[in-house]
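does this look right to u?? pyridoxal-5'-phosphate version
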Amino acid sequence: MVYLDHAATTPLHPRAREAMLPFLSERFGNPSGLYRAGQEAQRAVDAARVAVAASLGARPSEVIFTSGGTESINAALLGIAYAMRRAGAGYHVITTAIEHHAGLHAAQHLEELGFDVTYLGCDATGKVSLSEFEAALRPETVLASVMLANNEVGTVQPVAELAGLIREFARRRSHRVLLHTDAVQAPGWLELDVSALGVDALSLSSHKFGGPKGSGVLVLRRATPFLPLLHGGGQEMQKRAGTENVAGIVGTAVALEAAAGGIVERVARVGALRRRLRDGILRAIPEAIVHGSEAAGLPNNLNISFEGIESDALVAALDRRDIAASSGSACSNSMWEPSHVLVAMGVPIRRAVASLRFSLGEGTTEADIDAVLAVLPEELATLRSAAATAAD
Ligand code: PLP
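got this back:
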C-alpha cells in the first residue's frame, strides 16, 4: 500500500513498539502498587515524563499523560476555562473556526455552559490574523486556543506572536489570559518548545508521531489555573485520574524523541517529495488548486482540489489502486458536508467537496509519489466521465 494519510495516523515507530512490549506482557504492574512490579511501572512512567518534558522544553511536573489529542484539548479548554471562571476572572474564550472538531466542539460546549466564545476566521491560506486576534481580546477574556498546524491544509499559525500579543494585553490590563495550542500535527515537522511558543498549555496525540493510539500529552505550564475533567485517583499529579496507560506512555516518550530528532533533514527530504507530488499533479491536471500556505505550511501536507468530482469517490478509486489518501469532506446522512476549514478559507463548496489531502510521512518514498502520479489523472478522468454520463 502507498500510505499517504499520516495526518490521520502514523505507523508505530519500531523503537516505540519495542519499548512498549514488556509493559504489555511481563511488566504489567500498576504504578500505584507499592511492591517492586508497581514501582518498576512507576519508574517507567517517571522516565517517560522526563523524556517528554525534555523534548518539549517543559518541566516534568508540567507533563500530563492523557488518552489522546481529543482528551488533552478538552481538558485544556474546559479545565482552564472552568478554573478561570470559578476564580471570577471572566467568561470569554477566543478560538478559531478552523480548529479540529475536538477544539471546536469543546468550545461549543463552553458556550452551552454560558461562556462567550469568539471564533476567528482566517485568510485564503488558512492563516489567522494577528490584528483580529488582538481586537478580540477583552477584559473578560480568560483563554485563547489556536492550533499550531492545521490537520486539513497544514497551515502553521503564528502562535508565538499571539502569545506576545496576550502578554502585552495582560501587562496593560493587569489581567491574565491563558493560551492553549493544539500542536497535534506538529511533532516531527516543527521544532516544539513550550517556552519559545509562549503557551500555557499544549496538546499532543501520540499516534500522529509514531506512538500508539489512545495516548496523548497535555503540557500545563506551572501555575496554569486548571480544574481536572476526570475525578478519581490522584494520578498525574491530581490532574488526570485513572490508572496510567503505562505501555502507551512509554511508547509516547520514545516516539516523541524519535520525531524530535532529525527534523531539518526530514523536512527537507519530505518537503521535496511533497513538491514532486504537487508539481506532478499540477502538470497533469492544470485546473487543480492547492489549498494552504506554501510560505507557512507543514512540509508533509498537500491539500488539492479538482473540478467536477466528489472527493470520496476519488479516495475510493485510489484505494482500489492501493493508495491511501483522505478526503476533506464528510458524508453524513447522504449529505455532503464540505470541510469547515476549506469553507473558512473561502473555498467554493463545489471545490471543497472535491478536495483530497495527501499527508506524507517519514517512510514516504519517491516511488510512492510516482505511483500516485501514474494513476491519479486516469482515475480522475474516469470519475469525471462517469459524472458527465450520469448528468446526461
Ligand atoms: N487535533 C488535531 C489537529 C488532529 O489532527 C487530531 C486528530 O485527527 C486531533 C486533534 C485528535 O486527536 P486524537 O485522535 O488523539 O483524539
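Residues 68-70, 73, 100, 102, 147, 151, 182, 184-185, 205, 216 surround pyridoxal-5'-phosphate (CB under 6 Å). idk if thats expected tbh
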